[in-house]
Amino acid sequence: MPFGYASPEQIMRDKADYARKGIARGRSVVVLQYEHGILFVAPNPSRALHKISEIYDRIGFAAVGRYNEFEALRLGGIRYADVNGYTYDRSDVTARGLANLYAQSLGQIFTESIKSMEVEVVVAEVGDTPDGDAIYRLTFDGSVFDEHGLAAMGGQAEAVSTRLKERYRDGMGLAEALETALAALTEPGGERPPVGQLEVAVLDRNRPHRKFLRLPAPRLERLLAEAAAKSDPAAGATGQPAPGTGAQAPGDPATGPEGDIDTGSGA
Amino acid sequence: MASHRDLPAGMVNHLFTNTGNSSFTEFVGSYAPELLPGRNDTLATPVGDRIPHATTIVAATCAGGVVMAGDRRATSGNIISQRDIEKVFRTDDYSCMGIAGAASTGIEMARLYRVELEHYEKMEGRTLSVAGKANRLATMIRGNLAMAMQGLVVVPLFAAYDPEIDGGRIFGYDVGGGPYEQYQHHAIGSGSIFARGALKKLYREGASPEDTVLTLIQALYDAADDDSATGGPDVTRQIWPVVAVITADGFRRLSDEEVAQYVRTTVDGRMNNPDGPVAPLR
């Protein structure tokens, strides 16, 4: 325990600052609704350590921050979902229940432990119609945000979120949604992460049984080519800044390629 | 379950404690053991024929996969307790199981087994090998041995597409577990003796999935012909066998319309030849 007296406000502020710093070092992750469900996009050079995962039939998970910490949350979430689905019925497992479980756990760790978890998590559920979709974002202190249509988290989350909101519209096709997510993840004038370093998955409401599907690199390339073919005939009037023309923002690029905590493959 | 006071700081419950492996059954066994079947005290008296029993399941390999079919009858002694029970279950994208024996225990086992396979896949990020899946099912059946001795016998049949050999594999079990890998074809349940006889004569190595479905429908017809506990195609109520085809494209349960076609072919053929197709003598 800390030596001497520290006010509760001070302790909480210190913990929150510590957690924020840890999270901000990583790359951003974007989750957004598209025509047939929900799309998850994460720049992730590691092919073994996932930031995006399936939790249950209709529920997906995305996280940023410290790998071992969000991995524990992911595994706990899968156990929660499978136990509930087995106890009751598969349709009785909801993202809302899972978000509450995570909120409890994150909140308790934030108040009781010396170190809070350096993670931010999105739990998303795909419904039978777009109205049934749900995206919940949870922060390190256990706060839950019910997001509408899109969510961004991780390093430079605010900038990414702003860019995403500018480009996002309801009912985009998969190719367009992917293009939008990548544009939001890239600093104006910055370089896009290569397809091989992207982790992308969808919750597709049209799939039978399990809705979660990872999109492999060849599929991503086809989708991006499709999106480019659609936007090119519009003579570049799609509102996307040409590379190199945008004003270079000072400081680290949004994608934070130097992030040393995020991959989990290191130390 | 331990109270929250025994838990490390920040742990809401045992969901976040690592149990050491990726088995759902193991986890539930420590987290909420009452949920698992077969862990209750054994029955005072055998239940025998008083509860519904599921009957005949047949399976055969085909070119690039495997096909499984089951009739729709459940019996309690001499009573037909259900005409449209389903006994063939999808367990994951590339496997399925059929159950014979006590229907209630069997259905519960199939439900648990599906969660077991999915749980491993999600936890580990990879699918179990076919042998791994078959072994896992054997452990579950062995766990039911005490109940089996009191009449709640469940014997499943497991079939899966194995990407290693680009073909189907079939595993049989007994009340003590198993697995016993079966080549080409296998049948379980009360009508299995008759179905197996038919399968021996009608099975064709490397036949298309469509032909193999027809073989299985013929075998089920023969089983229903001679076994009172196996249901034949119910033409008046339009109740057809459940047929599952598993190939590299994954598990697919044939629609009622598709199965109706095969059943019609079988029934039409038997109008002229009640014992079904004749296998060549030489």
TrEMBL record, chain B:
UniProt propeptide residues: 1-54
Q: Which residues cross the membrane?
A: none
Q: Under which EC number(s) is this enzyme classified?
A: 3.4.25.1
Task: Write down the InterPro entries for this protein, in alphabetical order.
Answer: Ntn_hydrolases_N, Pept_T1A_subB, Proteasome_sua/b, Proteasome_suB-type, PSB_actinobac
Q: Any one Gene Ontology biological process term?
A: modification-dependent protein catabolic process
Q: Which GO terms describe its molecular function?
A: threonine-type endopeptidase activity
Annotated control of activity: The formation of the proteasomal ATPase ARC-20S proteasome complex, likely via the docking of the C-termini of ARC into the intersubunit pockets in the alpha-rings, may trigger opening of the gate for substrate entry. Interconversion between the open-gate and close-gate conformations leads to a dynamic regulation of the 20S proteasome proteolysis activity.
UniProt keyword list: Autocatalytic cleavage, Cytoplasm, Hydrolase, Protease, Proteasome, Threonine protease, Zymogen
Write down the chemical reaction(s) this protein catalyses. Answer: Cleavage of peptide bonds with very broad specificity
Instruction: Tell me the route in metabolism or biology where this protein functions.
Output: Protein degradation; proteasomal Pup-dependent pathway
Location in the cell reads:
Cytoplasm
| Positions of the catalytic residues | T55
Gene Ontology cellular component list: cytoplasm; proteasome core complex, beta-subunit complex
The protein's enzyme class: hydrolase
Q: Which NCBIfam families match?
A: 20S_bact_beta
- Give the record's family classification: Belongs to the peptidase T1B family.
Task performed by this protein: Component of the proteasome core, a large protease complex with broad specificity involved in protein degradation.
Quaternary arrangement and interactors, per the entry?
The 20S proteasome core is composed of 14 alpha and 14 beta subunits that assemble into four stacked heptameric rings, resulting in a barrel-shaped structure. The two inner rings, each composed of seven catalytic beta subunits, are sandwiched by two outer rings, each composed of seven alpha subunits. The catalytic chamber with the active sites is on the inside of the barrel. Has a gated structure, the ends of the cylinder being occluded by the N-termini of the alpha-subunits. Is capped by the proteasome-associated ATPase, ARC.
Q: What is this protein called?
A: Proteasome subunit beta
Phylogenetic lineage = Bacteria, Bacillati, Actinomycetota, Actinomycetes, Streptosporangiales
